[in-house]
Amino acid sequence: MRVAFSAVPDSHLPSVDELLSIAVNALGGSERQGQVTMVQAVRQSLDDKTHLAVQAGTGTGKSVAYLVPSIRHAMDSEKPVVISTATIALQRQLVDRDLPRLSEALGKELPHEPTFAILKGRRNYLCRYKATAGWPEEDEQDQLFDPREVSATGRMVQRIQEWAEETETGDRDELVPGVSEQAWRQFSVSAQECLGATRCPSGAECFAELARARAGEVDVVVTNHALLAIDAMGELPVLPEHEVVVVDEAHELVDRVTSVVTSELSDTSVMLAVRRVGRLIEQPIADQLMEAGEDLKALLAAAPPGRIDELPEVLGLTLALVRDTAWRCITALGPRNADKDDPDKAGQRKAAFTALDEVHDTAVRMLEAYGHASEADRAEVVWLDAGTDRRPPMLRVAPLSVSGMLRDKLFGERTVVLTSATLALGGTFDPLAAQWGLGEGRSWQGIDVGSPFDHPRAGILYVAKHLPQPGRDGLPQAYLDEIAELIEAAGGRTLGLFSSMRAAKAATEALRERLDVPLLCQGDDSTMLLVKQFADDQPTCLFGTLSLWQGVDVPGPSLRLVIIDRVPFPRPDDPLTSARQRHVAAKGGNGFMAVAANHAALLLAQGAGRLLRAQDDKGVIAVLDPRLATARYSGFLLGSLPPFWRTNDPAIPRAALKRLTETAPDD
């Protein structure tokens, strides 16, 4: 898409084009047209205070393309720009590599060397006061009966205690190897549990407060989508005052925001509230909440998992009982600011209020999810999530859409730039714009700056039109045969992306004896180590599921073939996506296309994006599901993929892979 850009307004600062040229030269790169176009588009978006969505393919250099105008804008406005990512890996890339190099390169041309900081949620920082004070226990009942886990947790706790004496940041990510959530919770607090810097004895040296203070003094603040949502939708600001947000990995924004605003209720959360209220109130009142929790436990253990469209009478009565008994406990606790001069008691009371509020408010929210006149009026969905051996069943409640929240709380207050390699679904930005709440009277623009890769020459998209449609009974034998033949042609070098872990494991078991190349499966070891092993040994293959669709970056000859077993539609019984489909249909839309097809298009594009990661990469994307060639929605899905050369002839990809194998360099 061609975009006309206005002239740069007068400023005492160098233009973004000049700064980009300096940055590219300093970093040892070369000018890329897509990067230049993106820099200009971001600059104009910030100048005009209009929202912008930028699709920038792998290799565009999009982080530099948004950082350069962001740094310049921060200098000009004297207010920080917030960069939000979905993954820790990208946060670390920005903070450890991109921003330090850019700061050094641009510092001589700007009023001062650009500064930056990373800011995470309070739970990610060690709480000095909790580490030393008598805080309520954070035990988990299922671990009390496993001496091995108790011992392992104890060793982790000891490591944290030793680390706490020497850390300068209190950032959990500094702990290598990491520790379990069970161990870490004994040293961290949520924002709701925090006493506040002015009331806490350790407030002056609080790691979370120090991190926030640093973030308030820099030009660029790097954070994550969850904290961005908490800041935008919460009553109290978490991030420093800002006018501009750049959302990288923007295809993940809706899911991450939905996770933030999803609430859970189980007997475990009720019993935690009972333990925390402890001796702070009269025992008979606490016992009432405990009995309500026991009723909830019995009910959830007997109920079938899945979406709860109509509120059963017994569930309604139980939720009302939980709500009312939690409120009695809250009332019995008295004023929230009592014991403010006694930090130990104040901490215990704050922890009790936090647990009780969560139980009470979630029960209220679930009860209010029902009673609407029609399906179109429904705003939230409630479902029962089946438990596991380690986790009890729990009720969950989530909004059917977060577009209104994003429209009002994020886009309504700030200028937002959204970017990813995958934003245009079916060739248009409209599907994701609707999920973000854009397009309803909001001024915004979407551009695709392309990719430096020559997709038709570098890659083949092969759809196995001759195979049967995938069924529910596992992988058909014809699929296993097809996978084996493709891998043999490629000499290994294959990333297998499966729609379920069951399918990935079944394919691994069936093909390990059949193939002469090493075959790894997600779950055999940590994903990071498996990906490294896959990248280091060319003949090796790696099979896995969802996290590999978006998290694998293996340039070079170790990856020549990406196999996708089926179009990755959400499970038909997934409570949230099925409810969203039905809600869209009730309002007159196409629920399948708006929800299921969009979900599949995003994942397909992300999966296909694993193939070409460097300029010299070549290979094949093989989709075994014939629906990508035959179904009525195939055009929409194909329009969401990079423009690879397409074929349905199985001989063509095999021949191409054999040629690549014959010319591949030795390990």
From TrEMBL:
<dbReference type="InterPro" id="IPR014001">
    <property type="entry name" value="Helicase_ATP-bd"/>
</dbReference>
<dbReference type="GO" id="GO:0016818">
    <property type="term" value="F:hydrolase activity, acting on acid anhydrides, in phosphorus-containing anhydrides"/>
</dbReference>
<dbReference type="Pfam" id="PF13307">
    <property type="entry name" value="Helicase_C_2"/>
</dbReference>
<dbReference type="InterPro" id="IPR045028">
    <property type="entry name" value="DinG/Rad3-like"/>
</dbReference>
<dbReference type="InterPro" id="IPR011545">
    <property type="entry name" value="DEAD/DEAH_box_helicase_dom"/>
</dbReference>
<protein>
    <recommendedName>
        <fullName>ATP-dependent helicase DinG</fullName>
        <ecNumber>5.6.2.3</ecNumber>
    </recommendedName>
</protein>
<keyword id="KW-0347">Helicase</keyword>
<comment type="similarity">
    <text>Belongs to the helicase family. DinG subfamily.</text>
</comment>
<keyword id="KW-0067">ATP-binding</keyword>
<dbReference type="InterPro" id="IPR006555">
    <property type="entry name" value="ATP-dep_Helicase_C"/>
</dbReference>
<keyword id="KW-0547">Nucleotide-binding</keyword>
<keyword id="KW-0378">Hydrolase</keyword>
<dbReference type="GO" id="GO:0006139">
    <property type="term" value="P:nucleobase-containing compound metabolic process"/>
</dbReference>
<dbReference type="Pfam" id="PF00270">
    <property type="entry name" value="DEAD"/>
</dbReference>
<dbReference type="GO" id="GO:0005524">
    <property type="term" value="F:ATP binding"/>
</dbReference>
<dbReference type="InterPro" id="IPR027417">
    <property type="entry name" value="P-loop_NTPase"/>
</dbReference>
<dbReference type="GO" id="GO:0003676">
    <property type="term" value="F:nucleic acid binding"/>
</dbReference>
<feature type="domain" description="Helicase ATP-binding">
    <location>
        <begin position="21"/>
        <end position="293"/>
    </location>
</feature>
<dbReference type="InterPro" id="IPR014013">
    <property type="entry name" value="Helic_SF1/SF2_ATP-bd_DinG/Rad3"/>
</dbReference>
<dbReference type="GO" id="GO:0043139">
    <property type="term" value="F:5'-3' DNA helicase activity"/>
</dbReference>
